[in-house]
Design a protein that fits this description.
Elements (H helix, E strand, L loop, with lengths): L1 E4 L10 E2 L4 E2 L6 H7 L2 E14 L6 E14 L5 E7 L1 E3 L2 E4 L11 E9 L2 E4 L6 E5 L6 E3 L7 E3 L5 E3 L8 E2 H14 L1
Parallel strand pairs: 1-8
Antiparallel strand pairs: 2-3, 4-5, 4-9, 5-6, 7-8, 9-10, 9-11, 11-12, 12-15, 13-14
Helix pairs in contact: 1-2
Length: about 180
């Protein structure tokens, strides 16, 4: 099986560079993240299929999201999230820093719509997993694979970015409602 790993330049996220440092993503606050998103939804990942991208002929995963709630912007009740990567006919494509979306998960997704297609706004930062808690639903992110630091000799070293804060879904709703009013 052939494994392709795309670098930060090919990743579907923001790229920031200076002479000494580079990251594949810029860590965004929830407010900044929402400002850059077309919409934010809460929903369930219903199913996935991997196809070949029509132009680049690389694996692309389509995840069907059944929308339970639109938190910001507008979205249909069902949408298809497109992400480069996946396994198709023995070829595996992995994008460092992209969110891992799994069927059956309840998620909050920050999305960008371009030319009728839905994408994550900021890779793995754009996916919160919804988990039940005593305070209501809690949102949690996994930010363990997409942040890098370039060393003096040019090599990339993965940074350990831990988002150990839990966000209450109700707090996220309030933040997004405030932002919606300011748009």
């Amino acid at each position: 099986m052939r494994v392709l790993i795309l670098t930060a330049l090919l990743a579907l996220g923001s790229v920031v560079s200076t002479p000494a440092h580079a990251t594949s993503q810029v860590l965004l606050s929830d407010y900044e993240h929402a400002e850059n998103a077309t919409t934010v939804v809460r929903g369930t990942v219903a199913e996935q299929k991997v196809v070949l991208h029509p132009e680049w002929h690389r694996p692309m995963t389509h995840s069907k999201i059944v929308v339970a709630e639109v938190l910001l912007g507008d979205a249909p009740m069902t949408l298809t999230l497109e992400q480069m990567g996946g396994e198709h006919q023995g070829e595996t494509l992995y994008i460092p820093g992209d969110a891992r979306i799994k069927p059956g998960e309840e998620v909050v997704l920050f999305l960008t719509k371009r030319e009728g297609h839905w994408y994550l706004t900021a890779m793995e930062q754009s996916k919160y997993t919804v988990e039940p808690s005593v305070d209501g639903a809690t949102l949690h992110r996994d930010l363990t694979s997409g942040f890098f630091l370039r060393g003096p000799e040019g090599s990339l070293k993965q940074l350990d970015v831990v988002d150990d804060r839990d966000v209450l879904l109700d707090d996220m709703r309030r933040l997004l409602k405030d932002l919606e009013g300011a748009r």
